[in-house]
Amino acid sequence: MRKIRKIRRIRPRMIIAFLIFNVVFDVVLAPFIIFWGPFEASKTLAVGSVLSSRHPQVVEAFLSEQEISEIVNKYNNTDSASNGPIRRTVSEASAGITLEDIKGKAFKGKVMLIKDPKRIKVAVTKELEVTGERVSDFVKDTGAIAGINGGGFYDPNGAGNGAFPDGLTVHNGEIVHNNVGNKSTDIVAFDKEGNLIVGQITADDVKKKNIQEAVSFLPTLIQDGKRGEFQDSRWGVAPRTAIGQKADGTIILVVIDGRQATWSWGAKMSDLYNLFKEYDAVNAANLDGGSSTELYYNGKVINKLWNWAGERYLPTAIVVMPE
């Protein structure tokens, strides 16, 4: 008599366990494929993106200093128009502000032009060293009409709530936070005349240069008409926020969306540099980007945030005051 083969029933628990195993396996295997695999473009992008994040040690765990240096130097494209021509479309113009949509080969974003540079202020969280605020909160609290995320920040307590601005932070001519002493730090600042100051300064320079508003971040993209020192591979491709100024004083605020494959990959530093050249900037600097990148205007966020949780909590923002 022929035995009837018993069909094993697949339980939902087995399917879930199988899926979890595959996810964990892929996550564990992915860094080895990226950093040790044959795909040079992916490796370069990953090296630059991770080195500019809060966890550069991830790259250092897979690659030697010499290998990292070779990748950085080999794929440095800071002089090339690496993302092709930039398309500009005016979407709004009123009250001394012009808003434009921009599109490169691999990125999309917004540019806001402000005719009067004295309308630009730094907003600082009300609970400094306790918790940060969203850009929308900064705009509402100050009575501004627009705002972008500001300088960098650090997280000594592991809370991740944007309470501690990094470097020098200046508001209304006074240093409100300083964790670098009198050491040189990269600055994005405005003096009494509304001139944008980029590059390195010390705390003592704040009074000497009549600096009224300032946050810290890097790199400098253009200083006095000359290209700053930066390397694409050190920064990778990411969402970006940046600021510049024309010779006539006009302020240029830039936000570029990123890490959204069907919308916008993001920009390299050379893309930002070329964009500011397109807008005739004489000074320009990169600001904090990634999941912080945001432009808030007329009561809403007008770019596409990468952060799935929405607006990030930050220690500083750069806001545009009414005329």
Automatic annotation (TrEMBL):
Residue ranges occupied by any Phosphodiester glycosidase domain in the UniProt entry: 143-321
The UniProt record lists the keyword Plastid: no
Transmembrane segments: 12-36
InterPro entries: NAGPA (IPR018711)
Signal peptide: none
This protein's UniProt keywords: Glycosidase, Hydrolase, Membrane, Transmembrane, Transmembrane helix
Pfam families in the cross-refs: NAGPA
Any one GO molecular function term: hydrolase activity, acting on glycosyl bonds
Name assigned to this protein: Phosphodiester glycosidase family protein
Source organism phylogeny: Bacteria, Bacillati, Bacillota, Clostridia, Eubacteriales
